[in-house]
Amino acid sequence: MSTDEQTSKDARLNRLEQASEWLLRMDNPARTEEDVNEWLRWCDEDSENLVAFEAFQRDWRDLDALKVGADAEGPALAPSGINDGLILSQSQKKALLEQGSHRLSILRVQRRKLWVPMAVAACLALVALAVILLPRERELSIPRQQVAATQTNRAATLPDGSRVILSAQTSINVDFNGSKRNLELSAGEAYFKVKHDRHHPFIVHAGDISVTAVGTAFDVRRESDEVTVTVEEGTVEIAGNVFARKGLPTTWRAEAGYQLTYSSQGRTAMIINVDTSSALKWRSGELAYVWEPLGAVIEDLNRYSEHKVIIKDPAIAELRFTGTVFTASMDDWLKAVEQVYPVRAEQSADGDIVLIETR
Length: 359
Fold this sequence. Notes:
The protein is α+β, with helices and mostly antiparallel strands. It contains nine helices and 19 strands. The strands form four sheets. A seven-stranded mixed β-sheet has the order 1-4-5-7-8-11-12, with no helix packed on it. The longest helix is centred in the first third of the chain and has 24 residues, at 3-26.
């Protein structure tokens, strides 16, 4: 046997020994939540652990050596699979441990190829029993918190390891308790890079709709009567009760490269294909607009400035604007506005800028 083959066998044997040790810890009534978390980390640290577990699921029915006879104390262990919610007595658990340990000893001493499948199945049985003894789904227990940005964009790491970038004057309420990761966006814009966790869906609530993702990257923008969702990676599910009275579907799926805009006033939703690299430039301080009312543009820009731009005449707010604004050069943009539109910018005593119609 070559050195590499011997090393591989030793690593496999070590994995089996660890599995049996974990069963003993998980079967202990005095086990703690930290014990459970450590066991889950061990399962995640090497993909071979999951491969071995799945192999055991396939082989369980044929593993006669691990069946406990009907004359044993308590209910018998039927070969119907590990997903039947088995309840084992102490004597049955002891019998399984003894048989698993016996096969592990054979593997150590003889190292014969004939015995390897039996040893693997026996030790994987111990891992499977640990899963049976644990809850099927962990609930997160993380303090509720709020993440907010002021006059500049802010990047932050959420409690689950997901990343978020908040635009100026944006805040989110984070509630990761229970089986779901819930976030509430009251106003502004936020970009989410979600850490994959299929057991705990990642849900952003924004007005009448909710956006659900397991592992993806997407952006949610909430204005007074509109919510816009832009998907950069993966797929999200957007749900709401907007058409319930008409009996039409209330759930949409948006894939990477698509943007859905929902209007709460008109109770309508529109999805289009977009260039996400352009649509999400706000993260680097570039705000792009296409034929937007000047009032809406200024309302957006005011989130990035300590001194606000105020429109005195409603007619100015209806003027249309197309272009890019750099949040670090607001003064230059205001000078350009004075040249393009019939307006004049005057600074008030408190530092705010007032736009006045000149015609």
